[in-house]
């Protein structure tokens, strides 16, 4: 039997009951490059046992001391990227919350199973008592959904809300993010107050459904929510990967300058706040936010 340390961290939050939690698990060096030592089946079972929105497994890279290998699991689902879990992992690494992985920061680089390198860092801001953490993800190109498809999607959201929902625009992600749907609703819709039957959203035929609109609040640029009932996740508390579609869209529509920072919120019941920007020249999205440690311990299997 072996014992492994873990921490639970709420990403994009300053409180114990806000943001999106992730359990971060430290594995011995080289473990993720040698699946027989900690198999995918074991990661799935561990994720299910913790019952958190995402389980993150970290291991020192066998051939590059500047990299941390990372895997994401939500039960049997292994997403390509998970923004909130990455931010939580960076908090753990930069605060030495998992000593077996060593002290990291302010720069951190994580490598996914597919070989994607995620750059991240901790940021100490003058006058602030709490650090922020920033992750850099590839921007997701989107394709506008045809009008006839927008009408169908609007009818699904209207059915889920039990009333007519004003849908202005819809687009889907391209490439590996083709299961993402972004739906922009009218400014009169209060996204945070909308009551939706999440199971109805299975009818959109997309596994990830993002709802968004602008806000009259001068401090925040846009708000969003994300629903994924087909993935066993009725609503995600705060979704980092959704913002790889949202940030370029709103930056373009609102004519923001290259890399101009925007303060935005995901208005799920737990809620989360993000400072975001789009590097148009490099096609990168930067997500910045706070992270709050919630608990820690060890488990033995």
TrEMBL record:
The terms describing its cellular component in GO are:
cytoplasm
Q: Which UniProt keywords apply?
A: Isomerase
This entry's Gene Ontology molecular function terms read: isomerase activity
Instruction: State the source organism's domain of life.
Output: Eukaryota
Q: Which family does it belong to?
A: Belongs to the PhzF family.
Protein's UniProt name: Diaminopimelate epimerase-like protein
State the species of origin. Answer: Suillus luteus UH-Slu-Lm8-n1
In the record, what lineage is assigned to the organism producing the protein?
Answer: Eukaryota, Fungi, Dikarya, Basidiomycota, Agaricomycotina
């Amino acid at each position: 039997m072996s014992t492994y340390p873990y921490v639970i961290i709420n990403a994009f939050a300053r409180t114990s009951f806000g943001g999106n939690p992730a359990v971060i698990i430290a594995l011995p060096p080289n473990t993720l490059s040698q699946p027989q030592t900690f198999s995918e089946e074991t990661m799935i079972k561990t994720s299910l046992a913790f019952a958190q929105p995402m389980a993150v497994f970290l291991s020192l890279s066998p051939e590059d001391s500047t990299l941390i290998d990372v895997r994401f699991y939500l039960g049997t689902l292994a997403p390509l990227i998970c923004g909130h879990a990455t931010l939580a992992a960076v908090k753990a690494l930069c605060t030495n919350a998992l000593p077996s992985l060593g002290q990291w920061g302010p720069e951190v680089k994580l490598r996914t199973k597919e070989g994607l390198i995620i750059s991240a860092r901790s940021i100490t801001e003058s006058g602030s008592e709490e650090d922020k953490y920033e992750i850099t993800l590839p921007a997701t190109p989107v394709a506008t959904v045809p009008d006839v498809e927008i009408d169908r999607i609007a009818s699904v959201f209207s059915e889920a809300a039990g009333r007519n929902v004003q849908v202005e625009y819809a687009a889907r992600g391209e490439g590996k993010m083709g299961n993402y749907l972004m739906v922009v609703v009218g400014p009169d819709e209060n996204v945070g107050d909308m009551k939706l039957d999440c199971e109805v959203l299975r009818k959109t035929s997309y596994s990830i459904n993002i709802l968004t609109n602008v806000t009259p609040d001068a401090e925040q640029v846009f708000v969003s929510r994300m629903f994924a009932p087909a993935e066993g996740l009725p609503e995600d508390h705060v979704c980092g990967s959704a913002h790889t579609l949202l940030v370029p869209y709103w930056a373009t529509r609102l004519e923001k300058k290259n890399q101009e920072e925007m303060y935005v919120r995901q208005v799920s019941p737990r809620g989360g706040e993000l400072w975001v920007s789009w590097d148009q020249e490099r096609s990168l999205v930067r997500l910045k936010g706070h992270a709050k440690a919630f608990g820690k311990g060890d488990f033995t299997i």
